[in-house]
Design brief:
Its cofactor is Mn(2+). This protein is of the alpha/beta class. The protein has one domain (129-475): Purple Acid Phosphatase, chain A, domain 2 (4-Layer Sandwich), CATH 3.60.21.10. Helix content is 29%, strand content 12%. It contains 13 helices and 14 strands. α2 (112-128) runs parallel beside α7. The radius of gyration is 22 Å and the shape is globular. Residues 149, 178, 209-211, 262, 370, 463 line the site of manganese (II) ion.
Length: 475
Amino acid sequence: MSSSPNSLPPPAPDPESSSAIAAADNNAPDTATTAGDSPPEEPICSTTTTATTTSSSSSSPSDGAEDPQPDIPISWPPDGQLSSEWVHRLIATFDWSSRNVAPSQFYSVLPVPVFDALVLAASKLLHKEPNCVSIGGLSPDSTVVVVGDVHGQLHDVLLLFREAGFPSENRYFVFNGDYVDRGAWGLETFLVLLAWKVFMPHRVFLLRGNHESKYCTSVYGFEKEVLAKYGDKGKHAYRKCLGCFEGLPLASIIAGHVYTAHGGLFRGNPAIPTLPKRSKRKKNRKVNLQQETNTLALGSLDELAKARRSVLDPPWEGQNLIPGDVLWSDPTMKPGLSPNKERGIGLLWGPDCTESFLKRFQLKLIIRSHEGPDAREKRPGLGNMDEGYTIDHVTESGKLITLFSAPDYPQFQATEERYKNKGAYIVLRPPNFDEPEFHSFDAVTPRPQVNPYYDFEDVIDSDEDLDLASMANND
Ligand SMILES: [Mn+2]
């Protein structure tokens, strides 16, 4: 841990006053002032208004400012079965509402009972999945699309879908986590992904990121966003989201040869020291302690399968360390396995660990995410995120890749100079699904102008320096 700010950022402005809305000036920069600085405005459209904006059938989906108003509120299908049409309608409605409806009116677009039904249906599916989902039985005409961090940048996620194609019978999707926080549409983004999960549970796989936690969402905006969008039902909605986060699986193995997870590799459970017989106990105790502190070995897929993932915040100490490692760890060029001191949780692992993990489990590829352009700026030994991905380790058995899918990240930045990074996704193709095909893409411009839900100028930079004290208090 370094000496960065050790406390939570100041509370974000009152959700009720953050009715900064859309569409009025789409050319305005994303670096908007915080909500409290701007006078409240009336929403351009509310549910009581049925007037539609001028429609233009020739407008592309990405300039939805002129799209006709969809039917709101969205309702849950009477038979409880989601269809492709329903999911596409949800997408079109969120795209429209992100430009035309004040965040404080979001409940009138997706009413709480519909939100509840969707989150419940998804939670049930997710909680049943194993820690490491195995994506097998792929047919020769299937492809698998792997996606990294998206961080609430709804419009970029929708662009990614249009470019890569939507989930279908023969197009699988694996998302590596970090759906929410920082970007202003974490709720819409997460709900769209949940809708795909519910509609195609065996084609769409949603893994957990470190931001799908109570700690991160209380610091980086998602909690405030949900409170703003669901008003007096906000706490209820936020709790449901947290419950769903707890169910998200930690990792995937695609076609037997590709391991994906948000952070990456993880330690093995420490061997439980055998207590010596009573008479020798005192004498041997010191030796055992020494062994315990020195034991940091790579974990196995078997240990991963047995970890307890259902925690609001993965612990950084105690017995249940695998979830925190999988969600928070980073690769390094330095050989070996060591504590990730920069982040205060998780591990750093070297190319030798990548090689031994690949070899031991007969894998060809590790695809992890977790590091954007800001994080990589501070890690001289590793590549930058300009193209949305880096190849970090190339070993005898295969490769380690970092994949980041939020272009022009972060949405809100305190400096004039932006990273202007591309986002990327990976397509895996038959027969072996183990050769990554990289696709980089630019951000959708302009983004609707909205206010951030966290104090982006003062919040601790990147994910580093996890504030363990506040995390403990937060539980
Ligand atoms: Mn992350």
